[in-house]
Amino acid sequence: MEKISPGQIHLADQRGFTKTSTLRRYSSFNYGNYFNEHRKPFGRLEVWNDEMLAGGSSIDVAVENSGWFVVMPVTGEVLLKRANGDIRLIDVGEVFAGYTIAGERLELTNLYKSDWINYIYLQLKDDEVINLPHDAVFKFDITNRQNELIDLVPTSGMHPFRLHAGVFGGRVDAFYQLQNSKSLFYAFVLAGAFELQGRLMHERDGLALWQLEEADMEALSNNAVIAILEILK
C-alpha cells in the first residue's frame, strides 16, 4: 500500500484573489490584503503568485523579507526592473532567479500593447548575506523534452531550492527524487490534471508535502504541465 505523505492541497478556487483593471493575481499563500489561517508560509516559501498583467501595464512588488525570488512566464514576456538599475526581459522558456533584500521594490512590466500575459512569481525567505553575483536567466525547453521533469535552475549549491517543470502525455508516470529527506516539496499544476502521491490535482492547484523522500505522479490528461519546487534544508 502506497504511503501517503502528510501534506496540504491549495485548491485553485480557494486562493486569494486580487483584481484591478490591469492585474489579476491569485495567491496560494497569504499576500497583500489576503490572509487565511491555513495559508501561512511553507518553510522558506512565502509567496507563490499566479499573475496576469494587462498590455502596457506595470506593477510594483514590495519585498518584505530578504531572500530569493523567481519569475517564470507562462504566456508572453515579462520585463523586470530592479532598484539597482538592472533590467531583464524574461520570455516563455526562461526563468529568472535572483536575490533581493527587504524593502526593495521590483517592477514588472508587460510590453505588449493589448495582450495580457501570465507568469508565476515566487519568493523564498533567506537571511544569509549573498555577496556573489546571483541574478541569472536560465533557458529551458520542455516542448521538445516531453514526459520528463526538466531542471529549470541548474544545481550550483547557491540556491536553497530546486525548480523543475515538465509537460506529460495522458497516463504517463513521472518520479521525483528529493535531494534531502528533510526538504519540503511544493507542486503546482499549470495545465491539465495529475495524481500526485495519492492526491488528485487539477489546473492551478498547488500541493505542499513534507516527510517524504520521493514523489510519484501520473498525468491524467494530454499536455499536462506541472512545476515542482524542492525547498532544501
Characterization of this structure:
This protein is an all-beta fold and 233 residues long. The chain is built from no helices and 21 strands. The two termini are 28 Å apart.
List its traits.
233 residues, mainly beta, seven-stranded antiparallel beta sheet, six-stranded antiparallel beta sheet, 21 strands, 0% helix, globular
Quick overview:
By secondary structure, the chain is mainly β. It contains no helices and 21 strands. It is 0% helix and 50% strand.
Helix and strand content put the structural class at mainly beta
- Outline: globular
Please give the largest β-sheet: 7 strands, antiparallel
Strand content: over 45%
Give the strand tally. Answer: 21
Order of helices and strands: EEEEEEEEEEEEEEEEEEEEE
Going across the biggest sheet, name each strand in turn: 2-3-4-11-6-9-12
Average pLDDT: 94
**How widely separated are the two ends?**
28 Å
Radius of gyration: 17 Å
Q: Please, how many helices?
A: 0
Model regions low in confidence, pLDDT < 50 over at least 5 residues = none
Helix content: under 10%
